[in-house]
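pinned: reference chain
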Amino acid sequence: MLSIRLLLVTTVFGIAVILADGCKDMGNAPPLPPLSVGQTILNVVVGDSVSQVISGGVAPYSIISNSDPAKVAVAIANSALKVRAVAVGAAAIVVGDNSSPQQTATVNVTVVAAPVSFSGQIQPIFNAGCAVSGCHLPGGSGPMSLATGVSYGNLVGVNATNGPCAGDKRVQPGSAGTSALIKRLEGNCGTRMPIGSSPLSTGQIQLIRDWITQGAQNN
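pinned: its structure tokens
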């Protein structure tokens, strides 16, 4: 009888130990640190590259999606997101880890044009194609001079005075599309400028657009 009691006690004790160990094994594992990527909002100048450290979650990390590879090139190396600005625009980059379920993080990248200098880049365009004899110089057919030293004051924040664009700002800082200068250069408001000569190149017009978009600084 005693041996039966001992057997029962031993059995119960063994079951208790097994259950206790099982409970330990079934306990909640500590949560994974959340996946994160340095800064999640980036402004990068065309041609520049930046690197953002990836942390948390479970390595290795991977690129899940890039909404516009034509604007932003991305790669992952040594637990860091490498971003290269290709062209002006924006893209959303989604990074994932190796956990299950997978954690993700999104980085929004805006690519901006390099700062444009009015004196160093815009005025030379005017000098070559606009501020020439018979056109936008004193005594010429143009309604205002675009000569060095006076062009900025004749353009920025000043209303156009003739043609279909009359009343529009010749240059509206921050708004290239509504600026009469851009409309005339692109041929969207009256005769395309420069009148009587070849249009400015796409690159030259884009440079003027970028200058206006950046605030039309007198720099």
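why pinned: The longest strand covers residues 104-112. The chain has five helices and eight strands.
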